[in-house]
Amino acid sequence: MPSYDVLIIGGGNLGLWTAYFLAKRGLHRIAVCERYWAGFGATTRSAGIVRQQGGSETAVKLGKWSRELYQELGRELGLGSGFVEVGYYVLASTPEERAAFQELVTLRQRCGVENTWLEPSELAQRLPFVDWSRYLGATYTPNDGFVYPHIVARNITHAVLRAGVALFEECEVQEIEPLASGYRVRTTRGTFEAERVVDAAGPRGARRIGELVGIDVPVSAARHQIVSFPTRPADLPANFPMLFVLAKGYYLRPDEHGLLLGMSNPAEQPDPTDRFLLEFDWDYFERLKPDWEATIPALRGLPIGRAWTGSIDYTPDHLPIIDEPRFGFYVLAAGGHGMMWGPALGMKMAELILDERVSDLPDEEIRLSRFQEPGKVRDAIALPFPTR
């Protein structure tokens, strides 16, 4: 029976980066079990936004580290990192957002992120294609950007295989049996034993894997929608900066020769199915369309090249879980930001496994036990997720 030091359940961005950092720090017997294929699920269906403008200390730091790690891995492999730096504006629509955003600038600067508040008059000079009469200002970070998900999935898969990690695809975990020392994991590709097990199973598996050992992992899946426009209006410069209208739950970024727009419906309910491909809500698309066309009039009438849905994992406070709730059993969840935070989450999970601690992040923003009492912290700069 194959035996490993660490067996990671989930071959998406979180699980693969955890394996990478464990191997990088000298651990040799590592396995990843993925019930489909590496990067198949939420990872390659995402929009790839990498934003350092989080709404809490943890959110800011994870975004900052992940941006750097994506680029470092590209240099290590001698491949394109998949990261494109264009800058990012987060738009304030209400007086309440304006006040909250201005306070967050200080937090981000304290965490080492370049971030500024800009008034509508200055924004109108910088981005004349936006109707700034609709907004009260925006925060801006010049070195935010995005990644092409398929490129970064390729890179991290290549990196873990090159490091000697055993990657088992089409390997669904069916049972986890605690042993006197470690765990026995039964899968569709055989039975393994491991001293330690990591639950990094994402929006479609994290809760189910936790249940196999009697642990409640409050991770649910919500539908997110993305459309890609194959052409870019002449009013928008090439590699224009990204925009996030937080109050409406949509964002815009460059994409190949055109642009990409992602959106989440505040009325969306948790999706209990195991499907990654969900029905596109064209009714909601049409309801929201006048808003972004009013914000950027050049978008009116653009033809759509692609439209798809993805499942985003979320936690009640939009923050991650990096914890060991049972000896030798670890939980890693992204709180809705798997592509944005994946590299840093993998780095911190490896640290918890090998050093038995997580440095530089506040416990109250990462531990599983925080959900047993009323939430004290939330990441306020996040897409609208269901409230349950």
UniProtKB/TrEMBL annotation:
Gene source species: Thermomicrobium roseum (strain ATCC 27502 / DSM 5159 / P-2)
InterPro entries named in the record: FAD-dep_OxRdtase, FAD/NAD-bd_sf
Keywords: Oxidoreductase
GO molecular function, one term: oxidoreductase activity
Entry-linked Pfam families: DAO (PF01266)
Domain FAD dependent oxidoreductase stretches: 5-352
SUPFAM superfamilies noted in UniProt: FAD-linked reductases, C-terminal domain (SSF54373), FAD/NAD(P)-binding domain (SSF51905)
GO cellular component: cytoplasm
Name this polypeptide is given: Putative sarcosine oxidase subunit beta
